[in-house]
Specification:
41% of the residues lie in helices and 28% in strands. With 188 residues, it is an alpha+beta fold. The protein folds into two domains: 51 residues; 121 residues, Cytidine Deaminase, domain 2 (3-Layer(aba) Sandwich). Helix 5 links the parallel strand 8 and strand 9.
Length: 188
């Protein structure tokens, strides 16, 4: 019986407590303040990331670029096919040249909607992490390829101007940006 009496006494004490409606208001205000503070902090963090790191360029580059498919880069209007050891050679150059950009001239033939790459060579070049200057590729070059820093897949205005000038000598020439070991942006 003692337990029942203790329970009844506890109920009576709870009934005696005075309800203060301002406690509920304080609780709501505290919740709203925490939510607003969280949103402001989130916005500050996001703005810091966007301003200090070119995240929008990386996102655009990922949307624009495409990965290898076997030994091919398959696009809507044409396909680039790497014959023989050219794909392995290109991957090896990319792996060795991580500290600086590099440029390569890809040689082969164009048959209808296929670029068949049979060899490549590296022109004379000077390079730093985010820029490469190179001697022009031979006129029979089908693709001027150069690397960009990791995940930076978009061509610069300088890249596009170089392609425009090169098309004066070879209308079929493409420019390819290699921005990851297996990811490319193609311009024609």
């Amino acid at each position: 019986m003692d337990i029942l009496e203790d329970f009844e006494e506890l109920e009576r004490e709870q009934d005696k407590e005075v309800y203060d409606p301002s406690d509920k208001k304080k609780s709501r205000l505290r919740k709203v303040a925490i939510i607003i503070g969280g949103v402001i902090l989130s916005l500050l963090i996001v703005s810091l990331i966007v301003v200090s790191y070119p995240i929008s360029d990386i996102i655009k580059g990922q949307l624009e670029s495409i990965p290898w498919q076997g030994n091919k880069i398959i696009l809507e209007n044409f396909t680039i096919i790497f014959k023989g050891e050219t794909q392995r050679q290109l991957s090896g150059i990319y792996s060795r040249e991580q500290k600086v950009e590099f440029s390569a001239c890809l040689i082969g033939e164009k048959r209808e909607d296929r670029y068949l790459i049979s060899s490549l060579y590296l022109p004379e070049q000077t390079a730093v992490f985010n820029h490469v200057s190179f001697e022009p590729c031979h006129e029979d070059t089908l693709i001027m390829l150069h690397s960009h820093p990791y995940k930076s897949c978009l061509a610069s205005e300088t890249d596009l101007e170089t392609l425009r000038k090169s098309k004066d000598f070879n209308q079929n020439m493409l420019m390819v940006i290699m921005c990851e070991p297996d990811r490319f942006s193609v311009y024609g």
